[in-house]
Amino acid sequence: MHPHLLSIAIVAYVCAMGLALAHLVQRQPLVHRLASLTTLVGWVAHTFALLLLAQNLWRRKRVAWLLALVLLGLYNRFAGLDRLWG
Q1: Which residue ranges make up each domain of the chain?
Q2: Percent of the chain with pLDDT strictly greater than 70
């Protein structure tokens, strides 16, 4: 896996956890949106790190991009990107 992308993902996940805990205490919508956005940044970095791993291992770009599109579709279906700002 790409070490820089993985580090970005881990830092984003830890920041998102801290913001989510802060939201439990403060109950401010801005903190909730920041936590959701930080989680999304971590998820994107993690996805790209997995894509680079798949590209290096199998050298099949179509499979890696298809996997990313499927994951984005599932995330949009079940987590709902429209709920982030609405």
Answers
A1: 3-83
A2: 84
CA-closest candidate to residue 22, choices 31, 13, 11: 31
Cα–Cα nearest to 15, from 29, 26, 31: 31
Q: pLDDT per residue over 40-74, tens digit each?
A: 999 889 888 888 877 777 666 677 777 888 888 77
Question: What was the pLDDT predicted at 49?
Answer: 87
Separation of alpha carbons 81 and 65, rounded Å:
20
What contacts 81, CB < 8 A, 6 or more positions away? Answer: 40, 75
